Amino acid sequence: MSRVVCFSYERMFYPDDKLSGPGYRLWAIATSLTKKGHKVSIAELSHAKDYLKEGISFISWDSIRLKDIQKEFDVAIVPLSAYVWKYFYKIRRIPTLVDLTTPIAVESMAHSIGDSSDFFMHDGVIPTYLALSEGDYFVCSNEMQKHFYTGMLAMLGINTIKNNLIAVAPYAPEKKKPEAEKRKVLESAVGKDRKIMLWLGSLFSWYDYKTLIRAMKDISKAEPAACLVFAGGLNPHIRELTQNNYDEAVSEAKKLGLLGKNIFFIDWISPEDRLCAYEEAMFTVVTSYNTTESQLSYRTRVVDSLNSRVPVLCTDNDDLSKLISSKKMGAVIPVGDAESLIREALFLMKDRKTIERCSRNIEKEIQVGFNIEETIRPIHEFCSKPEKRTAEGCLDFREAIPAMKAKITDLEYIRDDKLATNETLARELAKYDQRFSQVLEDKVRSEEDLRAQIASLRDELSKQAEANLKMREFAGRFRGSIVFPMYRLTSTIGKTGFGRFFQKILK
Prior knowledge:
The chain has 507 residues and is α/β, with parallel strands linked by helices. The protein folds into 3 domains: 3-172 and 381-398, Glycogen Phosphorylase B (Rossmann fold), CATH 3.40.50.2000; 187-370, 3-Layer(aba) Sandwich (Rossmann fold), CATH 3.40.50; 405-493.
């Protein structure tokens, strides 16, 4: 068997256990491949620390850690996301399987972030093009997705039919129902003896949560114990894509007077708490609009509900809704039909026998083939004999990608330059601060010396003035004595020629 490295753009279990739908799918692939004998590791962006979980190693997704990837691993699995460039440009040197389950080119059309056209190009189109042009093998989750990506690959000049490069390998429940802990994670929010409808997952723009919230007005009148719980509507990984929708949903529930009574909003919950929540719920709800995204989608939250053998109430606009309808694993309603939603919700709540019948149908479908052990087969086969794609595309639309790469490189240079500049400025400021302190200290010392000199001069002047005063007093007394006339006479004679002659004789 092979050494497989799966790449996750989100941090999965450590430290806060906040998996999104793509994270659950990747984990299911990793654990299933491990059971089939492969040695699996998961490389994470924003990796906190290396650890081991259920025999799977968690490592950092960075070019330094994976510089010898071809020595450590035989094959890579990369989910389609806006971060695929971090793999293909910085790491890829081994055969690579790309999981195309999340159609980001279509999803990015529905989001409105800043300049939506810029978001559509940089987070949708370019990553999809890069993954399709660089990947060696591709898997998706339904036939609609396969047709969608086959057309894209054909536009790149890649013949998928001749080379058998794309297969359907959907996320599916485990054969054995996972065991939930004996805990009530919803009861603390909604109270005891409630009939819980569970919405578990993000409130993205393509979901029709408004019709559901408004329908709860009539559902709660007919069945007072009924309540709707939104768990994790605000996605912590991509808050900017769900914040407005979440706020709108809360506002609508509050306006109808149902918030905290029949409609509740709780935070994102861990994988263990999810299993407990499914055990408490009568059924889950997934309603969406009739859009291209819905037709191409493969809802992880629907599969998770089936994995816990919990019936699903959903709209009839994707492949999984057809499966639920045909196998009687819940209830399917027309898009935007509030009356049908109310009717089917009340029917499922009518008694436990209805729910138990749906659960038995789910179990039966899982055992006959709709399970991860079976659906993962194309991934297992490629990982067992990984090889690089030899058929190159005839067309090359790479003009946008080098520009984007150059922009990213420029931004990295700017960031590094700013960091270096900040460090240099900090060092210079420290030097100037030290110099200023020294100059200030010298100036203070100089002023003290100057004050001492001034004080000394003042003291000297004072003494001189005192001496002068004494001399003047002495001179005054001398002039008034009887000796002074004789002094003046002898002084005058001394200045004459006779006087000077007489002085020589005396000498």
